[in-house]
Design goal:
The chain is α+β, with helices and mostly antiparallel strands. 33% of the residues lie in helices and 27% in strands. The chain is built from seven helices and 24 strands. InterPro entries: Cyt_b561/ferric_Rdtase_TM (IPR006593), DOMON_domain (IPR005018), Ferric-chelate_Red/DefProt (IPR051237), Reeler_dom (IPR002861), Reeler_sf (IPR042307).
């Protein structure tokens, strides 16, 4: 009987207590509309907590940083609503700044339209980023419910109102804009006006403006024992910079990566060992991280202490290093892919916290640049001019000698030997740079080896040239001509391949069109001289057959032909030099 009475009393108590539910894990979807916790208590009237935002205006697609701060609290529930009717459903979506303390919830039909806590642990500050939708109203107000403890909470604490451009701003008495300039979410492109004056900068192309979406920008600003880092560049995946003791990436280098995934940028540190995947750090050594995505450009900034005794893999920032900048794609799951082009590398070591400089860099290693330059000089200038002289200018200086031999022969031999020397010197440089054979250069090295072999074979063959009247002279002439022609054709093909390899990568499509222009220029001059020679022979034959004049007319015709040839040769040399200068300038600028 006594037990029955106790049971009855418990049932009555349960029935009279009404609904009372707490959500220590933050799963508060039931409160999406009125934002009221089901705690069985009345909300407090005067809020102690504030919401801060980093902008007063927004456009669709913008990321707005929202901060909640105040005395220690256990839970919260944050939404963005139409400022002119806060009873409407939540608007837009959020991105988390700290997944350990906050989580995304879906209210109504809008995914990730609210943010709440993940546990009852005490907190005094947290951040989230609100993404403005395309159909956002003219004015947005942020509302938050804050739970200090189970029985003490505030409902729909009003935050700042932000508006779209050219919309009058509605002001509220609660919720103010932050006064600090160190906002966690960037709102504008970086500025290069202080480069070399107040901060150390690396830019590619040199002196480019980071407000343009083609500029890779990196700056370091020292502030006592910390350094503020700003980095931006066009990329749909990631941008990164690395500090290295040498110009070879992978020797335990100190890397800083800003990777974009799902419209969120993760800023992290890693070490590069060999050619393997970056080894990311478990502990975060960076402070005051900020980022922005706009027009295909990733921006990120952070602070780092100059000395980090607790982190052996992070370099001291008051020493000198080579600086690398790279960009590439981010794979599924946030995996950093290999950079799809050669990283930018400074030409010397620099102390980023020391003497302020505004420098550029090169995406092509110095040895590869020299390799390309020597090959252009050899196969665009010396060999082309040498072949033209030997083929068309034998009769032009018949009685003029240079060191005891005909001028055309000495010029031809000198230019051909110069070609062999330039090609040989250039040939070994990629092997020195790579430390062996490159498996990533496609067919370029195979064609290059063939050209090198033919270039060496030509002078060896010329050393066994038969006398002019020997029966084998005709065979030699055909072998010499065919070997040289094959070498030149393969050299041009090899150059076309090499111009777009990652280690050099001249500007596209300029390099292809300019090289095609050079080929057309050479073929055009060849045709002009060939046609001129044919016409000159026909003219001389007509003069001899008609017997109008005997020697004088023939000599006059040949003299006129020689003048024309010399003019064409002068123009040809000038044209070749112009093409050569264009390519050498492009190599210097990359």
């Amino acid at each position: 009987m006594e037990s029955s009475g106790i049971l009855l009393a418990v049932l009555v108590l349960v029935c009279l207590s009404g609904p009372s539910a707490g959500y220590p894990n933050g799963k508060v979807k039931e409160a999406c509309n009125n934002m009221m916790p089901l705690h069985g208590h009345s909300p407090q009237k005067l809020p102690k907590h504030t919401i801060e935002v980093n902008v007063t205006e927004f456009k669709p697609g913008d990321h707005v940083q929202v901060s909640l701060s105040g005395p220690p609290f256990e839970g919260f529930f944050l939404q963005a609503r139409n400022a002119e009717n806060v009873g409407d459903p939540a608007i837009g979506s959020f991105v988390l700044a700290d997944k350990r303390q906050s989580q995304l919830l879906t209210c109504g039909h809008t995914k990730n339209s609210a943010v709440s806590h993940t546990s009852k642990s005490k907190k005094t500050h947290l951040d989230a980023y609100w993404i403005a939708p395309r159909d956002a109203p003219k004015r947005i107000q942020f509302l938050v419910t804050v739970v200090e403890k189970y029985s003490i909470f505030w409902v729909k604490v009003p935050g700042p109102i932000i508006s779209q451009p050219n919309t009058p701003i509605l002001r509220t008495t609660i919720g103010t804009l932050p006064t600090s300039s160190l906002v966690p979410h960037l709102t504008h492109p970086f500025n290069a006006s202080d480069c070399g004056k107040k901060k150390f900068c690396v830019r590619n192309p040199s002196n480019c403006d980071p407000q343009e979406n083609t500029c890779f920008f990196l700056s370091f600003t020292r502030d006592h024992d910390t350094v503020l880092v700003e980095m931006s560049g066009p990329s749909e995946g990631y941008i990164a910079f690395t500090l290295s003791h040498d110009q070879w990436m992978g020797g335990g280098d100190d890397a800083y990566i800003c990777g974009s995934e799902n419209r969120y940028v993760d800023i992290s540190t890693a070490s590069l060992v060999g050619r393997a995947y970056p080894e990311f750090d478990s502990e975060d050594a960076l402070e005051e991280k900020s980022w922005r995505l706009a027009d295909g450009v990733i921006q990120c900034s952070f602070k780092r202490r100059i000395h980090l005794p607790s982190s052996k893999r992070r370099f001291k920032l008051d020493a000198s290093y080579y600086i690398f900048m790279a960009d590439g794609e981010v794979g599924e799951g946030g995996i950093i892919q290999k950079h799809h082009r050669q990283p930018l590398i400074t030409n010397a070591k620099y102390n980023i916290s020391g003497l302020l400089k505004d420098i550029g860099g090169s995406r092509s290693p110095f040895l590869i640049k020299i390799h390309g330059a020597l090959m252009f000089v050899a196969w665009m200038a010396t060999v082309s001019i040498g072949v033209i002289v030997a083929r068309y200018f034998k009769p032009v200086w018949p009685n003029s000698l240079l060191f005891g031999r005909e001028i055309w022969f000495q010029v031809h031999r000198m230019l051909m030997m110069t070609t062999v020397l330039l090609t040989s010197a250039s040939f070994i440089l990629p092997f020195v740079y790579r430390g062996g054979w490159s498996e990533q250069a496609g067919f370029h090295p195979y064609f290059g080896c063939t050209v090198m072999a033919l270039a060496i074979f030509q002078p060896i063959m010329a050393g066994f040239r038969p006398p002019p009247q020997a029966p084998r002279r005709q065979i030699f002439n055909w072998l010499h001509w065919s070997t040289g022609t094959t070498a030149r054709i393969l050299a041009v093909i090899t150059i076309f391949m090499g111009m777009d390899l990652p280690a050099l990568n001249l500007p596209d499509p300029w390099d292809t069109y300019t090289m095609l222009g050079f080929v057309a220029w050479h073929v055009g001059i060849d045709l002009i001289l060939e046609i001129h020679g044919y016409c000159l022979i026909r003219k001389v034959e007509v003069l001899e057959d008609d017997r109008i004049q005997i020697l004088q007319s023939v000599t006059t015709a040949e003299a006129q032909g020689h003048t024309f040839k010399k003019t064409v040769l002068f123009l040809y040399i000038c044209g070749n030099i112009a093409f050569l200068i264009a390519f050498l300038t492009a190599i210097v600028q990359i």
